[in-house]
User: Fold this.
Amino acid sequence: MAPRSSLTTRVAIVGGGPAGLLLSHLLHRSGIDNVVLELRDRDYTVQRVRAGVLEHDAVALLTEEGLGDRLRSEGLRHDGIYLQFAGERHHIDFAELVGRHVWIYGQQEVVKDLIAAHDANGTPARYEVTGVEVVGIDSDAPAVLFSQGGEEFELGCDFVVGADGFHGVSRLAIPKSDRTTYEREYDFGWLGILAHTPPSSDELVYALHERGFALLSMRSPTVSRLYLQVPPGENIADWPDDRIWDELDTRLALPGWTLERGEIFDKSVTPMRSFVSTPMRHGSLFLAGDAAHIVPPTGAKGLNSAIADVALLRRGLVDHYERQDDAVLDSYSETQLSRSWQTQYFSTWMTRMLHTFSGPDAVFDHQVQLGQLAQLVGSAHAKAHLAEFYTGLPITR
Ligand code: RFL
Ligand code: PHB
Assistant:
């Protein structure tokens, strides 16, 4: 076998999703050499349909870092959301309650903008790498081993950042004895669609219904994104388009309001889980984004948390290289785990409030949820709590 080719960089980033690509971009702007290694091909990473909501501070960061042009011209600024239950729709006005807002801009678009920025900077990720192995994180010579195009490489570095998502390999480089994972599976998933139809609401509608949760979201003035709570592992083949629209009609129904139908061009079922892996740092390995934590999507927090992780990591790496100050890197795991558990709390709270649960207490629990929602929409304090969290915890950078 041919020997491995040696490469070196300061920061090796495993994973070219939003966390990895954004960190790479931020480091490049701060003059810190880095390399992104991505398993999939470039088109695949752009085609993945996922998040849609960007928090206030996430948008401020992206804008400051030269990634705000399309976001601000094509994204949709939303000043609130609607909560629907018991046949009524209530507006939660973020702008009035906390003076903040969110933006609707697909994760795919964020990834496209990042890839365009990398192309412009001449720092494209290495795509279609295989056999990634993170080694030496307890030594002073960490490295990432990988293959690409039939050639074997060893990428020596100062730090490795594992931004390779929930199914990635970086997390596993932390010895099992030093790793604790906290996990919770829900007994439902989300069936999500994209449809060519103007959104039937000006802002997102989160609906609790006896038949299950429904969410009306969007991607643009002509593309709607909608979700239905379904049993986990539901077979998408059992959901022809008419069945999906009928179910959405039932769960989102409101007197005098119609849900506009259109051609469905993407459908998928996503399981719901909560997951936290601790610590987020071991030796010279740092975890960021879904590699370290997953939340159920009800609070729209996953992508935003990934952005918050890499913003702080950039700060820490800049302090390390420019000022020989490791305070931020040394407290990274503790800081982001505290943030992550706060985000878990919000996502769990939204999920429990808005989904239908099965079991012997289901009927009672549904009435409690209606009580909870009635209290929420009737209290300025409770609404401000939701608004503050939904628009996002501060992102330190
Ligand atoms: P990603 O996006 O999973 O990217 C990880 C990348 O690593 C690559 N990879 C590897 N590369 C090299 N070697 C290996 N061995 C590798 N293994 C994996 C993968 O190919 C991939 O490219 O993680 P990242 O960057 O941390 O980003 C996290 C977000 O993608 C995720 O949190 C959000 O999509 C979650 N999410 C939402 N978040 C929000 O903030 N707001 C939302 O409105 C929102 N809605 C959602 C969501 C997630 C959803 N699904 C499908 C899970 C709605 C849905 C339906
Ligand atoms: C989305 O538009 O994909 C979306 C919006 C809000 C959520 C989750 C997903 O809570």
Summary: The longest strand covers residues 180-196. The domain at 185-272+358-391 is CATH 3.30.9.10 (D-Amino Acid Oxidase; Chain A, domain 2). The chain has two domains: 5-78+101-183+273-351, 185-272+358-391. Residues 14-20, 37-40, 45, 50-53, 107, 129, 132, 163-165, 167-169, 190, 192, 270, 289-290, 297, 300-304, 306 surround RFL (ligand 1) (CB under 6 Å).
